[in-house]
Write a structure and sequence with these properties.
about 525 residues; alpha/beta; four-stranded mixed β-sheet; 12 strands; binds iron/sulfur cluster; iron-sulfur; LUD_dom; Helical_ferredxn; metal-binding
Length: about 525
């Protein structure tokens, strides 16, 4: 994959926080999956990094999942809770709004990315601050919040270690859980040494690529930021409707620093993140750590309901984000994608993801879940999105590991149908319609077969135009001199006349034609 493709569209060369206000990497302008994947599979370093990381995580996951006798029951419970919640989503959303408001928070509704960015930018401006710290959040990446804030002169500082690596290198995330999975230790050391100083406390001159040294450099760099930034932005893994509680699960504790130290907290949360009660939450607190990081229990689980005087942020805003989710909900097959709890298990098991990497999917949601979620959220009108449902071998491994039993292959096939019946596939549709008409009538079929046999010597060996890609790797079968039906009429009649003696011979010859 070319550096430009690997890091998306970049509109400026200055990679300092100020420079990013003018230019930054985004997924916009990425090529369709086949093109991006072809390029990525030629990058042996990328393939090595991905193979090593995904195999380690998936082996760990398999070990801890195998410990539980009731894993399939937990999985069925997770699926049932999510389905029930999605069926009554309107009611639960209103319940959540009431509970958050009663607890001292303010709820904002955002129909799309533009509205969400406008709301958050306005809220940050109202504080008078120009810096914010961020908890790792897929929703804010989906709406490109950092870029919108930068346009308004507000710098967002990522505090998750992997997100920090991505931000410092002006790169793009390539994995839901481990956004810098495509980087190895040596690359990370170079990024820290070259870029940390432009964003705050520099990395030590003699920084090694030892994981402890890298973590310590990040800790020192971030600590200063935590202590002086007054506004934080987060997402949430879950939102409990009956108490208005937000829940964030993370492994480093950096998220908790953002959720407790600043004066103002703004959470951007997709409307599908709701669970009705704490009892429902209990199921997901068992499913998520085992499926994502392969841990029995999550290291840092932070929960908060509104504001508490004298304790933590004194201003809390919840931005509920639709951004295409209502459309997904309206699709009876596709809506199961909204059950996703972003564990990444489907990415780590996927043979396509392991070879192509996350950037090839052209979205913050890579891998199998990205292949079904992105085309649904953005539609399939443009080529990059229309190519995603085909980014799969349909092996079904993603469904097997999904903790909420999303039948990803079923949705992929459903979306392929949608793409195939869209305007962009008119020629294919017309060809299938004509074939259906010919095959639907015996006399029509006979006439076409006779006509085709008569001009068989003129048949091309290669299809013309865009269809040439099909025959580049396939042979067009020879057109027989006569159809089986016509042969059978003649030979079958002869067989009847000689009492069936030629039956076996006729069958064998017929088989060879
Ligand atoms: S689709 Fe399933 S396996 Fe994939 S990230 Fe979502 S919950 Fe995890």
């Amino acid at each position: 994959m070319s550096p430009e493709h690997r890091t998306g569209r970049r509109t400026g060369g200055d990679r300092s926080p100020a420079g990013r206000a003018a230019g930054h990497a985004t997924f916009m302008g990425m090529p369709p999956f086949p093109e991006a994947a072809k390029s990525a599979t030629g990058d042996s370093q990328l393939r090595h990094n991905l193979r090593k990381a995904t195999r380690t995580i998936r082996d760990k996951r398999a070990g801890v999942v195998g410990e539980l006798d009731d894993w399939s029951d937990l999985r069925a419970a997770g699926k049932a809770i999510k389905d029930r919640t999605l069926r009554h989503l309107d009611g639960y959303l209103e319940q959540l709004e009431e509970a958050v408001t009663a607890a001292g928070g303010r709820v904002h509704w955002a129909a799309d990315a533009g509205e969400a960015n406008e709301i958050v930018t306005g809220l940050v401006r109202a504080t008078g601050e120009s810096d914010v710290v961020k908890v790792k959040s897929m929703a804010t990446q989906e709406i490109e919040l950092n870029e919108a804030l930068a346009q308004a002169g507000i710098t967002a500082y990522e505090t998750d270690l992997a997100e920090l690596i991505v931000q410092l290198s002006d790169d793009l995330p390539s994995h839901i859980l481990v956004p810098a999975i495509h980087r190895n230790r040596a690359e990370i050391r170079e990024i820290f040494r070259d870029r940390m100083a432009a964003w705050g406390v520099p990395a030590p001159e003699a920084l090694s690529d030892d994981p402890r040294a890298l973590a310590e450099a990040a800790r020192v760099h971030l600590r200063e930021r935590f202590l002086r930034t007054k506004v934080a932005i987060s997402g949430a893994n879950f939102a409990v409707a009956d108490t208005g509680t937000m829940v964030v699960l993370e492994s480093e504790g950096n998220g908790r620093m953002c959720l407790t130290l600043p004066e103002t907290l703004i959470s951007v949360v997709g409307i599908e993140k709701i669970v009705p009660t704490w009892s429902d939450l209990e199921v997901f607190l068992q499913l998520l750590p085992r499926s994502s990081t392969g841990e029995r229990m999550n290291p840092y689980t932070s929960t908060w309901s509104g504001v508490t005087p004298g304790d933590g942020p004194q201003e809390f805003h919840l931005v509920l984000l639709d951004n295409g989710r209502s459309d997904v909900l309206a699709d009876e097959v596709g809506r199961q994608a909204l059950r996703c709890i972003r564990c990444s298990a489907c990415l780590n098991i996927c043979p396509v993801y392991e070879r192509a990497g996350g950037h090839a999917y052209g979205s913050v949601y890579p891998g199998p879940i990205g292949a079904i979620l992105t085309p649904q959220l953005r539609g399939t009108a443009s080529e990059p999105e229309a190519s995603l449902p085909y980014a799969s071998s349909l092996c079904g491994a993603c469904y097997e590991v999904c903790p909420v039993a999303i039948d990803i292959p079923e949705v992929l096939v459903h979306l392929r149908e949608e793409v195939a019946s869209s305007a962009g596939h008119r020629a294919e549709k017309a060809a299938m319609g004509a074939a259906g008409w010919v095959l639907g009538g015996e006399r029509r079929l006979g006439a076409v077969q006779r006509a085709t046999s008569a001009v068989r010597s003129l048949a091309p060996r290669r299809m013309p135009g865009p269809a040439a890609a099909w025959t580049d790797t396939r042979d067009i079968p020879d057109i027989p001199a006569e159809s089986f039906r016509s042969w059978w009429r003649r030979e079958g009649a002869a067989e009847d006349a000689d009492g069936g003696a030629g039956g076996e011979r006729g069958g064998q010859e017929g088989g060879r034609r």
